[in-house]
Amino acid sequence: MVEALLIIGVIVAVFVGFNIGGSSTGVSFGPAVGSGTLSKTTAAALMSVFALAGGWTVGRNVIDTMGGEIVPSSAFTLAASVGVLFFVGVALLISNTFGVPASTSMTAVGAIAGLGAATGTLNADVMLRIVGWWLVAPVVAFWICAVVGRYFYPYLDAAFAIDRSAGGVVEFDGARPRIAPGATGREVAGTVAVLLIACYMAFSAGASNVANAVAPLVGNGSVTASQGVLLAGAAIALGAFTIARRTLDTVGNDLTDLPLLAALIVEVVAASLITFLSAIGIPASLAVSATMSIVGLGWGRATRTTTLGGAVSDAVGGALGGDEADDQRQRPEVSVNALAAERSGAADGVPPMGEEHGDELLAEDLFDAGTTGRVVSFWIFTPTISFVCSYALFALAPV
Fold first, then answer.
1. Helix (H) or strand (E) holding 387
2. I want to staple 302 with a disulfide (CB 3.0 to 4.6 A). Which of 66, 206, 235, 366 is the partner?
3. Transmembrane ranges (predicted)?
4. Cα separation values, 291 from 50, 89, 321, Å
């Protein structure tokens, strides 16, 4: 019976890791693949390596938290571990069904907290610390990217636009790669930046997500931490080489218009936040941080057309209305470079704050409030339902 439960637990852990690989690869390498910098196969290989590196190093802190601090290790019987992992798998299924990037980390913590509440072993101090960071991290991600989008993005776009030559960046001389003769210096630098940031994102994904697949099994001693990291890493790699091919094509399209530079900014902010939280042992969501970074950057870019007071008023209560709102919706949209060409008096080709008059960006193109609301509601719903179901299971059938 014990061996059968262990086999089931390993299968469920692999299922969770498989789905994590499918979703995290798209988040990490979607911009690089979409820009033509990497093939999907190369992206999957790099995801496998750097996610394992993140789990093997920083990710062990998150395993310790989820495997023995939210509830003591003694609460993770083999049957309880299988139950917790089952709820994580169900949450992944629900989020994939509705097309929402729900948080695996938050759902896993919800299931573990349900076990602790049902058995009277929940560490309230640890749980409050985790929830506190859950509230702070998305706000920090939003405002960092909002400031970048409002005050710095047009200048970054003008200074670091990544050119694309016809022949690509790298060619092979026999078995040795070399820079293609037609590649520009800016193109080479941009390609290197895309690769480095994507690998950094994969590292942070491994650091935060490995624990979601194996922490209960490590907590009850069925596998060691090293064995758990290797098991999760292999499952993530399997997902990266299979189902991630679809997420690589679609990542980032529903929330905002996300050009390559914007995607790189989002990845740096989100990956840095998650790496920091993983280092201090906080299980946090890469999807949540990345999504709020996207929303913040889009909101910041869209609000360049008005003053700061007007932007805040519009965000909290829709203060912009009447003829002015109609005028903004009717004005044509042009690119940053086209706008710069038309405004010879603008410094560095970027119009002063509040003088774009809506020509450059329209808020509805950069910030989809309806989609964002649906995503945020699922962030609350999935860990809540995971907690409730876990509590009901372990209260009615102690294992």
1. helix 369-396
2. 366
3. 6-29, 41-58, 70-94, 106-124, 130-153, 188-208, 228-248, 260-282, 376-397
4. 21, 21, 27
